[in-house]
Amino acid sequence: MYEESADRLVTAAADGEDQAVEAALRPKLLDEFIGQERVREQLSLVLQAARKRGSAPDHVLLSGPPGLGKTTLSMIIAAELGAPIRITSGPAIQHAGDLAAILSSLTEGEVLFLDEIHRMSRPAEEMLYMAMEDFRVDVIVGKGPGATAIPLELPPFTLVGATTRAGLLPPPLRDRFGFTGHMEFYAPVELQRVVHRSATLLDVEIDPAGAAEIAGRSRGTPRIANRLLRRVRDYAQVRHDGVVTAEIAGQALDVYEVDARGLDRLDRAVLDALLRLFGGGPVGLSTLAVAVGEEAETVEEVAEPFLVREGLLARTPRGRIATAAAWQHLGLTPPVQTPPVQTTRGSVPPQPELFPADGS
């Protein structure tokens, strides 16, 4: 699977700086968490009921694109329950023994956060079935015909799984979660609140218009909003008086090549090649990737999802095509469509006229 580089300013992947800053910016309780109203309300009911019963809540699965707050919600779950939290990830658990070591060291009521749970190895995944359902694991001692399974009882715990690809989870694992919450992209108004809150914690003076400018370019993702805020802060402190206004935020993000809709250099390069070189398509993925000097996986998994979500690009059986919004966004005029040509075998579909009739 292709991993998106964290070098892009508008990537939702977290780098070292993001992780350090997020630790300070994360809300500690559900009431402080901005956005995701439906998930927050449902999760609040689950946690309140568990506290009244005095038992561990059902296992929780949080799905959705990166950067929307899945890790933050897992920490809030532990804080609301007054329980410790253990954090690990699917790629770190490659053997059943790795998982057994973690599970056997859990205390009663502890929260185990398993990020990217869909990337866990199959043997560990099968061990997790029994641990989630019966709070028990079978530890295999020895090999071959002499191998012995020793049952190990586990204290009640709550597993919080996070995944960016819920469809890759096998049904037996997905069915063992008592609550599943899907995280949605944020609306600009919600991101403005995120930017205001982060600016207060980072001691950045920002006006409402400045927050709105940053929110509008954040691709619906709080992590990106916080990253853009830090870069705008740097620009405001170095070239101005430190106050972030709409004009200063726009100037700063223009320097970092993030346009008004949140497109960066790679996104615009893909659209530009599709429009200028191929007349809006359709064009194959590999051909488009060569045109922008990137790997096909980079174009398909890094640039395309956002362009499709923004309605600027469409995937068709014949290849990638640009929408009318793409032409408008880059300030270009779509090519003139010639009428169908009638032949003895029927009509030939209209083709875009990429060059003027005089050949100039």
TrEMBL record:
DNA binds at R315, R320. It is an enzyme of class 3 (hydrolase). Residues 332-360 are annotated as: Disordered. Residues 6-186 are annotated as: Large ATPase domain (RuvB-L). ATP binds at L25, R26, G67, K70, T71, T72, E133, D134, F135, R176, Y186, R223. Its EC number is 3.6.4.-. Residues 187-257 are annotated as: Small ATPAse domain (RuvB-S). Its main location: cytoplasm. Residues 333-344 have a biased composition (Low complexity). Residues 260-360 are annotated as: Head domain (RuvB-H). Gene3D superfamilies: 1.10.8.60, P-loop containing nucleotide triphosphate hydrolases (3.40.50.300), Winged helix-like DNA-binding domain superfamily/Winged helix DNA-binding domain (1.10.10.10). The keyword Nucleotide-binding applies. Keywords: ATP-binding, Cytoplasm, DNA damage, DNA recombination, DNA repair, DNA-binding, Helicase, Hydrolase, Nucleotide-binding. Homohexamer. Forms an RuvA(8)-RuvB(12)-Holliday junction (HJ) complex. HJ DNA is sandwiched between 2 RuvA tetramers; dsDNA enters through RuvA and exits via RuvB. An RuvB hexamer assembles on each DNA strand where it exits the tetramer. Each RuvB hexamer is contacted by two RuvA subunits (via domain III) on 2 adjacent RuvB subunits; this complex drives branch migration. In the full resolvosome a probable DNA-RuvA(4)-RuvB(12)-RuvC(2) complex forms which resolves the HJ. Has 3 domains, the large (RuvB-L) and small ATPase (RuvB-S) domains and the C-terminal head (RuvB-H) domain. The head domain binds DNA, while the ATPase domains jointly bind ATP, ADP or are empty depending on the state of the subunit in the translocation cycle. During a single DNA translocation step the structure of each domain remains the same, but their relative positions change. PANTHER family: HOLLIDAY JUNCTION BRANCH MIGRATION COMPLEX SUBUNIT RUVB (PTHR42848:SF1), PTHR42848. This is Holliday junction branch migration complex subunit RuvB. The lineage of its organism: Bacteria, Bacillati, Actinomycetota, Actinomycetes, Kitasatosporales.
